[in-house]
Specification:
Two copies of one chain form a homodimer. In chain A, the strands form two sheets. The first copy, chain A, has a six-stranded parallel β-sheet with strand order 2-1-3-4-5-11, sandwiched between helices. Chain A has a six-stranded mixed β-sheet with strand order 7-6-8-9-10-12, sandwiched between helices. Chain A has twelve helices and twelve strands. Chain A has three domains: 10-54, no CATH class; 68-164 and 301-327, 3-Layer(aba) Sandwich (Rossmann fold); 167-298 and 331-337, 3-Layer(aba) Sandwich (Rossmann fold). In chain A, helix 5 (79-95) links the parallel strand 1 (68-73) and strand 2. In chain A, helix 1 (10-16) crosses helix 2, helix 1 (10-16) packs across helix 3 (37-50) and helix 5 (79-95) packs across helix 12. Chain A has 339 residues and is α/β, with parallel strands linked by helices. The interface between A and B is large, with 46 and 48 residues. Chain A binds a DNA duplex (16 and 16 nucleotides) through residues 9-11, 19-26, 28-29, 34-36, 39, 54-55, 57-64.
Chain lengths: 339, 339
DNA sequence: CTGTTAGCGCCTTCAA
DNA sequence: TTGAAGGCGCTAACAG
């Protein structure tokens, strides 16, 4: 009975199977057809007996293949990110990779720290869910010639595979729904646009759509996520400015929708009756909040899965031109946009 | 401008700094005081120029210290887990470890799969939110005398550090709150108890507490998380069985609370007015759901942090007897338990 | 203070 | 069909 902590090595197995390391290595690497039946049987027994597992570290060192994939997630707390993560995880499992999850907590220096970290662990590829990420970190990424896929948003001036939502279509769908429901003034709410293409595209599509409906008032505001005063003020003013009209809010992401709902509560406004509300990103509690909140659901799991597939494709040497995969959103209608 | 993919190695740096590898290694490992100023300066320059980062793989191979910690999370989708993860992450960052996150999706074989995986990456310790670790997994774990800390629940017949909630106190607090609010019949809802000590303890404490209030009806039910029929039936029957009484539900975890709220919606019952509702685990949307849902909040972040601290302590050789760390819950009162 | 050397566990020629 | 030998990048004696 081997009770010492020392992990069995390939040599131990070789000895136990009464053969050389090479054969063990072959056995481990799918070249079993090269081995005689008896040898293979011996090897199998030895491995089982010693409870042997090859060291990924030694392997990685030797072949440069670590089977590790780095994930940079801006905010693990965000349900959007969790959906993505979940899809990536599943895909990793299927493809034989292991994700190294890094939560940057929306902080730039964490981001830099983690980029170094991922490099030092020699990840074979990176998936970046850039929600909230800023320029500096992204620039840093460009330098490493590592297979990389962006999720949700692009990096300005940097060609790279992207997996994201069809923002134009989604925002148009959402806006048109509000129009159909008879809202006369609509406020588009987003976190500060910055250089985030996702936010820009959504707002642009919102505005473009409403130019086709000249009777309808289109406004937009940029609000920081965690400043409730600013948000309260924006909403209150919008509400009083258009007294007597049917008004609606269009929130550009799920985290923001939560804040908006809280703000409406504070202001004593009810979505559905006093004001319309539609938010990007599905929320598990959307149906439970008052009369329900209409959402535009992103297929996050699929997007995560697709992103990982794409990095793996790159890792395996696919050198096609940059690929942009775009998924469709789905409108889930609830009470907050009822007539 | 070095644009080739080849990462710089310690030898490259040595060459560039016109010295030997040893000095570089010393520089990297905090033995800088052993180096002359000029040499140190040369090394610094070389490292910066080559953008060199030591390979954790080579290091791990050599020293057996991978600085990797495995996390086994039962369900990454659960906000509880996310809170834990977040605390672990922060602690890892502080202590210089990197988490390898594995989501078992509540499946026992995933758990086994990941245990092997973590072993092959030679993690130095693991933190486990166990799903159903039995015999097989246990044996493997015990053999590999790997530092390990459990979160939330224990594993039957397995001595191991644990970090969890003070279930007795928490359940008592919750139950007493319901009593104080004048509820006359209370239904304790939990996923099937199985061998999960957490669930058992909560229910036990619920029952024990109510024996002190003989006038109050105590019932309990075990419902699978994703079978809405069973849940609907349980709730409907409980409701009709005690017509005319003030009734309340006590849900044993956050994921379940969500299902309960949905079920109440389907049944047309309003929490707060038709029936009381109190759930373990804080929910970000708790205040937005109708009149609000009273919750018993667990300090998840702190629990994750503490768990990681404990593994690290073990990794560093602390051989104290098994340690059980227990955190207090906090009751957050909202409309669902109002008089 | 600095450099040389011998592996860590594994894969990969190359030779038998 | 099998095995021996060398080296991946790094650290840790051991010498200078």
């Amino acid at each position: 009975m081997k009770s010492k902590a020392a992990r069995a090595t390939i040599s131990d197995v070789a000895k136990a199977a009464n053969t050389g390391k090479t054969s063990i290595s072959r056995y481990l690497n799918g070249e079993q057809h090269l081995l005689s039946d008896s040898l293979r049987a011996r090897i199998e027994r030895a491995i089982a007996e010693l409870n042997y597992r090859p060291s990924q570290f030694a392997r990685g060192l030797k072949r440069g293949r670590t089977r590790l994939i780095g994930l940079i997630i801006a905010d693990i707390t965000n349900p959007y990110s969790v959906g993505i993560l979940s899809g990536i995880e599943a895909a990793c499992r299927e493809k034989g990779f292991t994700p190294l999850v890094c939560n940057t907590n929306n902080e730039v220096d964490q981001e830099l720290h983690y980029l170094d970290l991922l490099r030092s662990y020699q990840v074979e590829g990176i998936v970046v869910n850039a929600v909230g990420m800023r320029e500096e970190g992204l620039n840093r990424l460009q330098q490493s010639a590592l297979p990389m896929v962006l999720i949700d948003r692009k990096i300005p001036d940097f060609d790279c595979d992207v997996v994201g939502l069809d923002n134009i279509q989604a925002a148009a769908t959402a806006t048109e729904h509000l129009v159909e429901q008879g809202f006369e003034a609509i406020l588009f709410l987003s976190e500060p646009l910055g250089t985030v293409n996702t936010r820009q595209e959504r707002r642009q599509a919102f505005q473009d759509t409403l130019t086709r409906y000249p009777g309808i008032i289109a406004e937009s505001a940029e609000v920081p996520l965690y400043d409730s005063d600013i948000l309260d003020t924006a909403l209150r003013q919008f509400h009083t400015r258009h007294r007597g009209m049917r008004k609606a809010l269009l929130s550009a992401n799920g985290a923001l929708t939560l804040q908006v709902a809280r703000s409406l509560r504070r202001l004593g406004l009810n979505w559905g009756s006093d004001i319309g509300l539609l938010g990007f990103d599905e929320l598990e509690w959307a149906e439970l909040a008052g009369v329900g909140i209409t959402t535009l659901k992103q297929p996050t799991w699929q997007m995560g899965y697709a992103a990982l597939e794409q990095v793996v494709r790159r890792i395996e040497g696919h050198a096609d031109s940059v690929r942009e995969q775009v998924f469709s959103g789905e409108l889930i209608i609830r009470g907050s946009t009822a007539r």
